[in-house]
């Protein structure tokens, strides 16, 4: 498998973490191609807080993969966001590699995008501090994700969980992203990021783009298989709630067959049929067929036949992905190279923005 540009010399061991923000050297190293300069910039990420789910794929990654030619794409794996809930360090490390291999296996081509770890680029946390000083705490308390995570039994309601959306705003503004493709659950966080950017621009002077959300209709909100009122989430406790991208065919079929459905046996989209509606949405997003077409095809079938057909479609869809994943996860050298190259580009951008922000906020320029 070829690396993105040059051999960076990373062979084994852990990727070299970026330490300080060497503005000059970094900026000189960065040479965007002409075509990249003219493209709008998108940035989006996922947390390595668990194994990626079908919700992550259909609501997010699938849509990112078709944007590579049209946009300059930054795909951080937002590992700093993953520690706002209780976690095991060794698990985080393993899941971060898994997430990277899954990004690439899902079609995020590192030759056409910048994939990196949030924790490898200095600037995310620094900018988030500055932005936090412009963010009313009341706004953070109103965030649905905070309220849901804080209400989970045994949750540690730490300051990081509350400030989570400010770090997300920093991720986006650090690169002056034009668009942010996310699932519907992130709409509120994006609205907050836009407000924070506007507040910075008004307080100091015009600095940040106001990023636009980019929410694809198909798969925008994949719901839990056991509770269709709740989104499918990778940190769900009950394994039956979510299809994981790495689930075996047997597991996939079992989860789909035991997904909660509604009374009756008609396969159609209706307000009082959230369970079947969710499965229809999944079927449609996986096969790129319309809901109407599926309703027609399964008009005479019961839930069992419909669910088995959905399981077949999912297994067929995930098989080539899993095959690519298995090859990638074995190749740490390649993964390190992808991260190193992604970090170099990201760090150069981040330093540029951060030095501008520091200047505008009244800090004395760093002495060399
Ligand atoms: P956690 O459960 O740990 O909060 P998550 O899977 O909800 O994790 P991320 O990994 O940070 O969240 O999400 C990555 C992307 O996947 C985001 O753009 C998010 O909007 C999208 N996403 C997550 N869950 C769903 C879902 N059920 N339906 C559609 N999109 C989703
Ligand atoms: N908060 C998001 C993950 C996330 C993100 C970002 C998404 C962190 N930083 C920047 C888009 C852009 C989530 O929970 N899915």
Can you describe this structure in just a few lines?
The protein is 49% helix and 5% strand.
How would the blueprint of this fold be written?
Elements: H1 23-29, H2 34-38, E1 41-43, H3 54-65, E2 72-77, H4 89-105, E3 113-117, H5 124-132, H6 137-141, H7 144-151, H8 159-173, E4 179-181, H9 187-203, E5 212-214, H10 249-257, H11 274-287, H12 291-297, H13 303-329, H14 332-360
Parallel strand pairs: 1-2, 2-3, 4-5
Helix pairs in contact: 1-14, 4-13, 5-8, 8-9, 10-13, 11-13
Q: What this model shows, in words?
A:
The chain is mainly alpha-helical and 368 residues long. It folds into two domains: 34-215 and 331-361, 3-Layer(aba) Sandwich (Rossmann fold); 239-323, Tyrosyl-Transfer RNA Synthetase (Orthogonal Bundle). 49% of the residues lie in helices and 5% in strands. It has 14 helices and five strands. It has helices at 23-29, 34-38, 54-65, 89-105, 124-132, 137-141, 144-151, 159-173, 187-203, 249-257, 274-287, 291-297, 303-329, 332-360, and strands at 41-43, 72-77, 113-117, 179-181, 212-214. It has a three-stranded parallel beta sheet with strand order 1-2-3. The protein has a two-stranded parallel sheet with strand order 4-5. The protein is globular. The two termini are 40 Å apart. Bound molecules: adenosine-5'-triphosphate and L-tryptophanamide (LTN).
CATH superfamily of the largest domain: HUPs
Strand content: 5-15%
Can you write the helix and strand succession as a string? HHEHEHEHHHHEHEHHHHH
Helical stretch count? 14
Low-confidence stretches: 1-20, 22-34
What CATH calls the topology of the largest domain is Rossmann fold
Q: What spatial form do the alpha-carbon principal axes imply?
A: globular
């Amino acid at each position: 498998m070829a690396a993105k540009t040059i051999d960076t010399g990373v062979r084994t061991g852990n990727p070299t973490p970026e330490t300080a923000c060497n503005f000059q050297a970094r900026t000189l190293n960065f040479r965007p191609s002409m075509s990249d300069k003219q493209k709008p910039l998108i940035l989006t990420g996922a947390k390595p807080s668990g194994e990626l789910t079908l919700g992550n794929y259909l609501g997010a990654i699938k849509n990112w993969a078709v944007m590579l030619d049209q946009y300059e794409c930054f795909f951080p794996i937002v590992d700093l966001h993953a520690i706002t809930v209780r976690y095991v360090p060794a698990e985080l490390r393993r899941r971060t590699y898994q997430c990277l291999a899954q990004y690439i296996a899902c079609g995020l081509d590192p030759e056409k995008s910048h994939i990196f770890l949030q924790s490898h680029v200095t600037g995310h946390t620094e900018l988030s501090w500055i932005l936090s000083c412009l963010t009313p705490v009341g706004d953070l308390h109103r965030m649905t994700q905070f309220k849901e995570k804080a209400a989970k039994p045994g949750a540690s309601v730490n300051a990081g969980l509350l400030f989570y959306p400010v770090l997300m705003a920093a991720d986006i503004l650090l690169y002056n992203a034009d668009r942010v493709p996310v699932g519907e659950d992130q709409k509120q966080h994006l609205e907050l990021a836009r407000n924070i950017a506007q507040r910075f621009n008004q307080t100091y002077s015009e600095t940040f783009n106001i990023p636009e959300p980019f929410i694809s209709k198909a798969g925008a909100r994949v719901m839990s298989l056991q509770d269709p009122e709740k989104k499918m989430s990778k940190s769900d406790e009950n394994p039956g709630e979510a299809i994981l991208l790495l689930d075996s065919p047997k597991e996939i079929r079992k989860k789909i067959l035991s997904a909660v459905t509604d009374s009756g046996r008609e396969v159609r989209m209706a307000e009082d049929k959230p369970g079947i509606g969710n499965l229809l949405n999944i079927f449609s997003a996986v096969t790129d067929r319309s809901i109407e077409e599926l309703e027609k095809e399964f008009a005479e079938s019961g839930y069992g036949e419909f669910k088995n057909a959905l399981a077949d479609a999912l297994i067929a869809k995930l098989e080539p992905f899993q095959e690519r994943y298995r090859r990638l996860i074995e190749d740490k050298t390649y993964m390190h190279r992808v991260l190193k190259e992604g970090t170099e580009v990201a760090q150069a951008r981040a330093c540029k923005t951060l030095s501008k922000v520091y200047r505008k906020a009244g800090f004395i320029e760093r002495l060399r």
